[in-house]
Design a protein that fits this description.
binds zinc ion; 139 residues; 50% helix; alpha+beta; 5 helices; 4 strands
């Protein structure tokens, strides 16, 4: 999702693709990177926890979210006007998602978990840095 301007048709195709596949491809990128750089001790999914972290490290009580840049309002990827129509709608939707992310992180911390959020673009641009952030948090 790199282009800034989509035609109307293209945009709805993109939206459908994002909605349909959810977080799967970014989760997969994390798994590939974790294996490559020898990060162990993680488990997938945690439905009983606030916000359903994508990965958890049970022993260290570390919860990891891989946040899609679009839906979670990544400041680096979303700062330019990507949507010339319905801008208010998207703005509201994404800021709602961000507020929810903050709330869920706070709930996890209140339960004694530490939380790390990794942007989709970080994992794509520099998986080694993303994995290093996690392993640092485990120490
Ligand atoms: Zn981003």
């Amino acid at each position: 999702l790199t282009g800034d301007v989509f035609s109307k048709k293209k945009r709805s195709e993109v939206m459908a693709a994002i909605k349909g596949h959810g977080n799967k491809s970014t989760e997969l990128a994390f798994i590939v990177a974790a294996r490559k750089y020898g990060l162990h001790g993680w488990a997938r999914g945690a439905k009983g926890l606030p916000g359903k972290p994508d990965f958890i490290f049970k022993r260290s009580k570390l919860a990891v979210f891989i946040d899609g840049c679009f839906w979670h309002g990544c400041p680096r990827c979303n700062r330019r006007k990507r949507f010339h129509s319905n801008k208010a709608y998207w703005k509201q939707k994404i800021s709602g998602n961000r507020a929810r992310d903050r709330r869920k992180s706070r709930q996890l911390r209140e339960m004694g978990w530490r939380v790390r959020r990794i942007w989709e673009h970080q994992l794509a641009d520099s998986p080694v840095t993303a994995i290093a952030r996690i392993s640092k948090a485990l120490k």
